[in-house]
């Protein structure tokens, strides 16, 4: 079997990319990040709209988990963290959570460094310094055990659950068999399948967690949408041949394959088990991917039927088109055409093609979203800002 | 000839139409004998792989996704007109 390679971190994790991440703790300093981005194009410079103004314990938990999770993601080889000083998620508060990251981290605060231009100047120097320090780090053999692969779907159509997610499920089963860990979230898209997922749990405790997670998702959907909650299974789904919500959701959860579910983790929480893992996270693509990335995922598969170009910073995202029409229409964005199943390709052939591509991507080949720079970074909040 | 239906899981008693199927044509998929399509079925909708009695479970993805409300013949369209949702409590 083909060998896979990666970059070893000091804490024993392995990345499949070796990026310099330039990350703001708070949206107030996004402009500093943009200046660094212009001068150091090889760095992954990320901006976001968070970091302050939300004080509830759940929002704080998510904020710290996502920022620290992104810093700790194994694909990140070094970090320039740009803070302001007075924000909730300031670098002093963040530091204890990232000190075991096993990589160089340089920290600059605009209120201490002499303002935004001075901070940008120092940030540019820091990003270049880290970049040149990690540039020659060699790839070493990587065990499948060290890999956490995410399965995501977004912009779905009637064929997503028939072609793309079925093919991704076959890849998921193959990965778990190899000893890798597979994770998927999107709790709203599990509604109606609690009985299926709970039965596959490794023990009673995990089964209860699955049921409770889906019950919460269903209640929240009803609370927010009221009578419109039925739109979760919409006339569009019915027209596409989905007859019940259980059938629609089966098409979604099938992307995770059929393995035993070993753990349910919270949004952005790092799994402690291997095999198949569920994440209690939202269905919206960008926010879902942020949770999966903070959990330590180094690689993502992402099925789409309507056609979304979205990728994620520092993480290769393999786009799987559910139908040939959108594959052809968005060739620049799509890596795999699962619509080929309709044209006579067998599931086994498609799975082999996807595994071969995955191995090439792990070893450095860029996905379309990666090459195009289609990074999206946003994450979930639960309460309005103050 | 390319398959015109897809069987997702070996346990399934329905398959998915990969294109619009017309009454009188043959449904084909790897590993099964061809059979007659009994009525027009839209693309991505379900076709019965065997006779299904009223009250029987509809299996897709290897799981129960609905229960039939009337007898369904092999080759017929399976949708909201001949099944209903079933919500389980463990």
Show the helix and strand layout.
The complex is a heterodimer of chains A (about 375) and B (about 90).
Chain A (H helix, E strand, L loop, with lengths): L3 E5 L5 E2 L3 E6 L5 H10 L4 E2 L11 H16 L3 E8 L7 H8 L6 E5 H4 L2 H19 L5 E3 L5 E6 L6 H19 L2 E4 L9 H6 L4 H22 L9 H5 L5 H9 L7 E6 L9 E5 L4 H10 L4 E6 L12 E5 L2 H6 L6 E2 L9 H16 L5 H5 L14
Parallel strand pairs in A: 3-4, 3-5, 5-6, 8-9, 8-12, 9-11, 10-11, 12-13, 13-14
Antiparallel strand pairs in A: 1-2, 1-7
Helix pairs in contact in A: 1-5, 2-3, 2-11, 6-10, 6-13
Chain B lengths: L4 E2 L7 E4 L8 E2 L7 E2 L9 E3 L8 E4 L2 E6 L8 E2 L4 E2 L6
Write up this protein:
The complex is a heterodimer of chains A (386) and B (90). Helices cover 40% and strands 17% of the residues of chain A. In chain A, helix 1 packs across helix 5. Chain A is globular, with a radius of gyration of 21 Å. Chain A has a seven-stranded parallel β-sheet with strand order 10-11-9-8-12-13-14, sandwiched between helices. In chain A, strands 4-3-5-6 form a four-stranded parallel β-sheet, with helices on both faces. Chain A has helices spanning 30-39, 57-72, 91-98, 110-113, 116-134, 160-178, 194-199, 204-225, 235-239, 245-253, 285-294, 324-329, 347-362, 368-372; strands spanning 4-8, 14-15, 19-24, 44-45, 76-83, 105-109, 140-142, 148-153, 181-184, 261-266, 276-280, 299-304, 317-321, 336-337. Chain A folds into two domains: 19-134, Rossmann fold (3-Layer(aba) Sandwich); 144-372. Chain A is α/β, with parallel strands linked by helices and 386 residues long. Chain B has 90 residues and is an all-beta fold. Chain B has one domain: Archaeosine Trna-guanine Transglycosylase, Chain: A, domain 4 (Roll). Chain B is 0% helix and 30% strand. Chain B has no helices and nine strands. In chain B, the strands form three sheets. Chain B has a four-stranded antiparallel β-sheet with strand order 1-2-5-8, with no helix packed on it. Chain B has a three-stranded antiparallel β-sheet with strand order 6-7-9, with no helix packed on it. In chain B, strands 3-4 form a two-stranded antiparallel ribbon. Chain B starts with a strand and ends in a 6-residue tail after the last strand. The chains are: A alpha/beta (386), B mainly beta (90). At the A-B interface, helix 6, helix 7 and helix 10 of A face strand 7 and strand 9 of B.
């Amino acid at each position: 079997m083909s060998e896979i390679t990666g970059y070893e971190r000091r804490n024993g994790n392995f990345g499949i990319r070796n990026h310099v991440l330039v990350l703001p703790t708070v949206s107030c300093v996004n402009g500093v990040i943009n200046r660094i981005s212009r001068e150091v194009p090889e760095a992954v410079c990320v901006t976001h709209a968070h970091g302050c103004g939300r004080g509830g314990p759940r929002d704080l938990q998510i904020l710290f988990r996502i920022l620290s999770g992104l810093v700790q993601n194994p694909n990140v080889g070094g970090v320039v963290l740009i803070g302001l000083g007075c924000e909730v998620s300031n670098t002093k508060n963040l530091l204890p959570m990232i000190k075991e990251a096993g990589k160089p981290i340089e920290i600059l605060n605009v209120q201490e460094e002499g303002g935004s231009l001075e901070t940008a100047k120092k940030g540019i120097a820091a990003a270049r310094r880290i970049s040149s320090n990690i540039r020659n780090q060699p790839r070493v053999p990587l065990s499948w055990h060290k890999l956490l692969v995410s399965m995501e779907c977004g912009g779905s159509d009637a064929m997503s659950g028939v072609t793309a997610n079925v093919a991704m499920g076959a890849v998921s089963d193959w990965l778990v068999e190899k000893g890798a860990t597979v994770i998927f979230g999107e709790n709203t898209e599990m509604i109606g399948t609690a009985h299926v997922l709970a039965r596959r749990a490794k023990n009673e405790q995990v089964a209860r967690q699955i049921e409770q997670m889906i019950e919460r998702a269903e209640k929240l959907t009803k609370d927010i949408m009221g009578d419109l909650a039925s739109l979760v299974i919409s006339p569009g789904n019915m027209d596409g041949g989905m007859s019940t919500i259980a059938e629609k959701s089966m098409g979604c959860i099938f992307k995770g394959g059929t393995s035993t579910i070993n753990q349910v983790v919270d949004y952005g929480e790092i799994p402690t088990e291997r095999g198949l893992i569920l994440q209690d996270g939202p269905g919206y693509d960008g926010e879902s991917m942020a949770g999966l990335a903070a959990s330590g995922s180094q690689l993502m598969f992402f099925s789409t039927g309507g056609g979304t170009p979205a990728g994620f910073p520092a993480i290769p995202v393999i786009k799987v088109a559910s139908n040939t029409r959108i594959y052809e229409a968005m060739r620049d964005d799509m890596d795999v055409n699962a619509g080929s199943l309709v044209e006579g390709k067998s599931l086994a052939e498609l799975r082999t093609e996807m595994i071969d591509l995955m191995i090439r991507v792990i070893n450095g080949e860029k996905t379309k979203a990666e090459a195009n720079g289609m990074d999206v970074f946003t994450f979930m909040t639960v309460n309005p800002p103050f | 000839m390319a398959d015109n239906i897809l069987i997702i899981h070996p346990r399934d008693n329905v398959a998915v139409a990969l294109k619009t199927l017309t009454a009188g044509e043959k449904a084909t998929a790897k590993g099964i004998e061809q059979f007659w399509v009994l009525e027009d079925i839209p693309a991505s909708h379900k076709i019965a792989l065997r006779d299904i009695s009223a009250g029987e479970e509809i299996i897709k993805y290897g799981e129960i996704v609905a229960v039939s409300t009337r007898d369904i013949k092999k080759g017929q369209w399976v949708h909201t007109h001949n099944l209903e949702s079933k919500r389980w409590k463990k």
